[in-house]
């Protein structure tokens, strides 16, 4: 189950400043470990020991004062659909505007959990000014200054409380949870229908299906897994909004609820920025991933087509390139079932445990062959390696001076692990710790 916080509000109220503050400490750790470039609009935060996702919806729309009311409306409706809690940011300097009132009205009617943050309350006088925001009719208000961070602790207490008792993201399922993600029109519905429609008799509903996600058990050809589907994917007349924000936001919940994601891209378009964004979303959530280049039937092929396209894709997803890439057609069914085999292998890789003895044998030799460069005349010694008991693969190397280990060396170690043990399609974490 997911915990998703969406930040909504007019342009210039301070949404992105607040977003950066909410994710900053957490982000440093994640980025260092994964090498994944940071997304300006999506990040992970942690408060009182609870992890949650933060989405700055404002970051995806035109950020100008004359942004259309219709655009804000769309943004708010989508946040209502996709988030668990909405953080409505308003600006004490401008007071309640017509647009604030309009947004409040939609939020009130939605029945969603809403937390109101009155931003730019940089001093005590402004606390008095902020009282007018009770007039929004959304209950308690939280006075904050995103700039200085004041008030954000109380705000986060309330946010975390609003999530209720949802369990953590990586709860253990008995069966693998698989999802199909990608931007509009890549063929997600076609892919799922190819699997499900013809085999209707094997489809059974699984407990846990909610308004937000449909869980379908698939048990055939020796596979037994659950397809996680966001409501709407299989709906007729779904919204076809080709705006990045909408498709990325729509993917978040699905990704968080699955173990392995099949990322579909369109063969006629190649891997574009938006696809890379979804890929990064999968990686930073530490989910398994298989890239499926769909509509391969439409491509005029020569002997080099697959190699060339594969190389282009790996270039776009660097440095995390140890990912299976298949060329498929949901229409002709080419390699659709093969995709499932690979996805199941990725799932196994994600649950893989390497014996400490095997790890040490490999990595201590690798370290000896290429030791970490000394820093200020100090030699870094790595003594011991172990896989951590985390839900996804993570390794800890114990060293005398772990703070001096740099990113390239981590990458070297990660590559050694990948060369020797199959972790294809799985993000892995490498940590250096004090011995
Ligand atoms: P967004 O458009 O809602 O994402 O707003 P931004 O985060 O880009 O902020 C808009 C402007 O408000 C920027 O100039 C920020 O520096 C400023 N700002 C943000 N938070 C605060 C705050 O707490 N106090 C003050 N005085 N200014 C702020
Ligand atoms: P979604 O928005 O990602 O769910 O995409 P759809 O499954 O609705 O597919 C979008 C369009 O692409 C439809 O017209 C499909 O018929 C077409 N399509 C999907 N997969 C393939 C494929 O493998 N080959 C071809 N030629 N067309 C496809």
UniProtKB/TrEMBL annotation:
<dbReference type="GO" id="GO:0005525">
    <property type="term" value="F:GTP binding"/>
</dbReference>
<keyword id="KW-0547">Nucleotide-binding</keyword>
<dbReference type="InterPro" id="IPR015946">
    <property type="entry name" value="KH_dom-like_a/b"/>
</dbReference>
<dbReference type="InterPro" id="IPR005225">
    <property type="entry name" value="Small_GTP-bd"/>
</dbReference>
<feature type="domain" description="EngA-type G">
    <location>
        <begin position="176"/>
        <end position="351"/>
    </location>
</feature>
<keyword id="KW-0677">Repeat</keyword>
<feature type="binding site">
    <location>
        <begin position="229"/>
        <end position="233"/>
    </location>
    <ligand>
        <name>GTP 2</name>
    </ligand>
</feature>
<dbReference type="GO" id="GO:0043022">
    <property type="term" value="F:ribosome binding"/>
</dbReference>
<feature type="binding site">
    <location>
        <begin position="294"/>
        <end position="297"/>
    </location>
    <ligand>
        <name>GTP 2</name>
    </ligand>
</feature>
<feature type="binding site">
    <location>
        <begin position="182"/>
        <end position="189"/>
    </location>
    <ligand>
        <name>GTP 2</name>
    </ligand>
</feature>
<dbReference type="InterPro" id="IPR016484">
    <property type="entry name" value="GTPase_Der"/>
</dbReference>
<dbReference type="GO" id="GO:0042254">
    <property type="term" value="P:ribosome biogenesis"/>
</dbReference>
<keyword id="KW-0342">GTP-binding</keyword>
<comment type="subunit">
    <text>Associates with the 50S ribosomal subunit.</text>
</comment>
<feature type="binding site">
    <location>
        <begin position="56"/>
        <end position="60"/>
    </location>
    <ligand>
        <name>GTP 1</name>
    </ligand>
</feature>
<keyword id="KW-0690">Ribosome biogenesis</keyword>
<protein>
    <recommendedName>
        <fullName>GTPase Der</fullName>
    </recommendedName>
</protein>
<dbReference type="InterPro" id="IPR032859">
    <property type="entry name" value="KH_dom-like"/>
</dbReference>
<feature type="binding site">
    <location>
        <begin position="9"/>
        <end position="16"/>
    </location>
    <ligand>
        <name>GTP 1</name>
    </ligand>
</feature>
<comment type="similarity">
    <text>Belongs to the TRAFAC class TrmE-Era-EngA-EngB-Septin-like GTPase superfamily. EngA (Der) GTPase family.</text>
</comment>
<dbReference type="InterPro" id="IPR031166">
    <property type="entry name" value="G_ENGA"/>
</dbReference>
<dbReference type="Pfam" id="PF14714">
    <property type="entry name" value="KH_dom-like"/>
</dbReference>
<feature type="binding site">
    <location>
        <begin position="119"/>
        <end position="122"/>
    </location>
    <ligand>
        <name>GTP 1</name>
    </ligand>
</feature>
<feature type="domain" description="EngA-type G">
    <location>
        <begin position="3"/>
        <end position="167"/>
    </location>
</feature>
<dbReference type="Pfam" id="PF01926">
    <property type="entry name" value="MMR_HSR1"/>
</dbReference>
<comment type="function">
    <text>GTPase that plays an essential role in the late steps of ribosome biogenesis.</text>
</comment>
<dbReference type="InterPro" id="IPR006073">
    <property type="entry name" value="GTP-bd"/>
</dbReference>
<dbReference type="InterPro" id="IPR027417">
    <property type="entry name" value="P-loop_NTPase"/>
</dbReference>
